[in-house]
UniProtKB/TrEMBL annotation:
Job description of the protein: Key enzyme in the regulation of glycerol uptake and metabolism. Catalyzes the phosphorylation of glycerol to yield sn-glycerol 3-phosphate.
Protein name: Glycerol kinase
Species name: Streptomyces varsoviensis
CDD domains referenced in this protein's UniProt entry, alphabetically: ASKHA_NBD_FGGY_GK
Domain Carbohydrate kinase FGGY N-terminal: start-end pairs: 11-258
């Protein structure tokens, strides 16, 4: 598989994701040399509960690493560093002496800590820890999930207080096992993953003792917080024996890094099932008053940390799947572009897919999906167009919130993820944002980001300027819509959003 231009050395990136784990081998040009991927089981013990078997995940990680190295036709000696990226917020506690998880990992989507979060909010509510952590109190984050396990697994709190138990998000679990596990495994996390626990102070980048005591989490279980690009330790055993483990970034931050958004105002948006948009806000954390999260973007070695604002949209790609699977209006996801392109506009219809409430910037759990503006004139082609416009308008709302919070105008939007193959959607995005939209050559920006950070840590790439030079654009879209049309359509969209709210009435 290796040919003339892909002679080594290489960087390997492990992406421990929500549905699968994979390993990608990259060359010095940031090109993909080999990929191996394996899915793991999704466990649903009760409605709203989601778990993973961490032992299965570690076995899969070893499998994909060995597979990628074999496919590339190389050995550990050709690999200069390993980078890690991971599904964020998914929470695990394991026994230090045996390496056995004490419970399945509780996945980021899991909502079992809803009631606990309300209780933790006390008389302050959602924003109780927001100033320190940049996050609202929500079941999404890792801190409350740790507390849930300590409260619900027999004898666990005592073991944790005795220092027998380790906590980690999936980066920590993979790094601990890679570097030897029970035989000297390194217990660390990086600043981006730590910033999703609700336990780290954003300014000092240290665990916050006041929050730990409020959440009743013993400090003994916590990993050391390190930068996103530095050598944490060396892989022991397996296909990458002896290779330095040199980066960790939560998946969305890894994509920001892989898209080389190194300057203030540069943003990336990943279009998958849902959508995550991050904007680099420079060396100061920006408090959000518009429903966004403040998070660590990345930190390279001992350099100053770089912060980001993050907005998430619950339903984007999954709306296209819904059109296909539930409505039967299209036979394949790709067909939506053809159908939507057969008409010139939305025919007056607007589709707000608040299927599980609205995420950023509203955070309204009482909202439900709405198609507004229907007349006899509207066909399924208009609805298809409204579906694509929904993703673009939701992105515009987050962009507006980011500008309001940071005072920084969006210069351009770098995009990745499955939906970016839809050219009509990309043009619509550019029209609605009134900014260029750029898609890179290497679509696997999450893995690329982890590889870039690991490569920087070991001097494989000299600096971020070299990474920028490496980043290549595949396509760019520029705005074609006149301002009057844009403003009118946006106003209609916002009217439709209002009509989703208050649908679910509090039944408590």
């Amino acid at each position: 598989m290796t040919d003339a231009h892909t002679t080594g050395p290489f960087i390997a990136a492990i992406d421990q994701g929500t549905t699968s784990s994979r390993c990608i081998v990259f060359d010095r040009d940031g090109r993909i040399v080999a990929v191996e991927q394996k899915e793991h089981e999704q466990i649903f013990p009760k409605p709203g509960w989601v778990e993973h078997d961490a032992t299965e995940i570690w076995e899969n990680v070893q499998y994909v690493v060995a597979g990628a190295i074999e496919k590339a036709g190389i050995t550990a000696a050709d690999v200069k560093a390993i980078g890690i990226t991971n599904q964020r917020e998914t929470t695990l506690l394991w026994d230090k002496a045996t390496g056995e998880p004490v419970h399945n990992a509780i996945v980021w989507q899991d909502t079992r800590t809803d009631a606990l979060c309300k209780e933790l909010g006390r008389n302050v509510g959602q924003d109780r820890f927001r100033r320190e952590t940049g996050l609202p109190l929500a079941s999404y984050f890792a801190g409350p999930k740790i507390r849930w396990m300590l409260d619900n697994v027999e004898g666990l709190r005592e073991r944790a207080e005795r220092g027998e138990i380790l906590f980690g998000t999936m980066d920590s679990w993979v790094i601990w096992n890679l570097t030897g596990g029970t035989d000297g495994g390194v217990h660390v996390t990086d600043v981006t993953n730590a910033s999703r626990t609700m336990l780290m102070n954003l300014r000092g980048l240290e665990w916050d003792p006041k929050i730990l005591s409020s959440m009743q989490i013993p400090a003994e279980v916590l990993p050391k917080i390190r930068s996103s690009a530095e050598v944490y330790g060396t892989a022991k055993g397996g296909a990458l024996d002896g290779v330095p483990v040199a980066s960790a970034l939560g998946d969305q931050q890894a994509a920001l890094f892989g898209q080389t958004c190194f300057s203030e105002g540069e943003a990336k948006s990943t279009y998958g099932t849902g959508t995550f948009m991050l904007m680099n806000t420079g060396h100061e954390p920006v408090n959000s008053y518009n429903g966004l999260l403040t998070t660590v973007g990345y930190r390279i070695g001992t350099e100053k940390p770089v912060y980001a604002l993050e907005g998430s949209i619950a339903v984007t790609g999954s709306l296209v799947q819904w059109m296909r699977d539930q409505m039967g209006l299209i036979k394949s996801a790709a067909e939506i572009e053809t159908l939507a392109s057969s008409v010139d506009d939305n025919g007056g219809a607007y589709f707000v897919p608040a299927f599980s409430g609205l995420f950023a910037p509203y955070w309204r759990a009482d909202a439900r999906g709405v198609i507004a503006g229907l007349t006899r004139y509207v066909t399924k082609a208009h609805i298809a167009r409204a579906v694509l416009e929904a993703t673009a308008w939701q992105t515009r709302e987050i962009t507006d919130a980011m500008t309001k919070d940071s005072g920084v105008e969006l210069t351009s939007l770098k995009v990745d993820g499955g939906m970016t193959s839809n050219n009509l959607l990309m043009q619509t995005l550019s029209d609605f944002l009134d900014a260029p939209v750029v898609r890179p050559m290497v679509a696997e920006t999450t893995c690329l980001g982890a590889a870039y950070a690991a490569g920087l840590a070991v001097g494989f790439w000299p600096d971020t300027a070299a990474l920028r030079a490496n980043w290549r654009r595949a396509a760019e879209w520029t705005p074609r819509m006149d301002a009057a049309t844009r403003d009118r359509e946006y106003k209609n969209w916002l009217k439709a959003v209002e009509r989703t709210m208050g649908w679910i009435e509090d039944e408590e």
